[in-house]
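FAQ: What does the model actually see?

It sees only this:
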Amino acid sequence: MASARKKSTEKTGGVRFSEEAFAAPSHVHFDEKLHDSVVMVIPEPDGNFLVKVGFLKTQHKYEIVFNLPEVPSLGKEVCPAPIPNPHLRITDISPGADGGLRVTCEYVAQHEGVLCEEVLLVSETKEDVCIRVKVHARVMDRHHGTPMLLEGVRCVGAELEYDSEQSDWQGFD
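And it is asked to produce this:
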């Protein structure tokens, strides 16, 4: 019996790894700017643009900055169309570093859900030339945490709506 016990505890060999397995480091590399972390501008087949700004929170106001590629038909002098949009307002249009346009706008997220607001950019030098910019956002309820904002999106304040049913203040009669 002693010899059987001895055989079960003897070391007869081991697991060996080749030196090549350790020669090549296995690191995870990320691009400096992941496309999932920045505002995405997607050209549409009709010449317009879709701008994806990620997750936002209801009852909050955001500043959104994005770059549009050069649109030769618009020319260099561009302005927002005088069509009011209560939720999306362009505050600045300037020449971009790559020859396109750098657009700054304010967006007030009013409702929960997947929302799409539109603005028109018109040429100041060419009649009847414009492009449509659709801003696409996923807006979550204000009670469901704080979203991680994409690069190019900045919260500039809360747009609190007074709701007497939700208020603890009952007032005096």
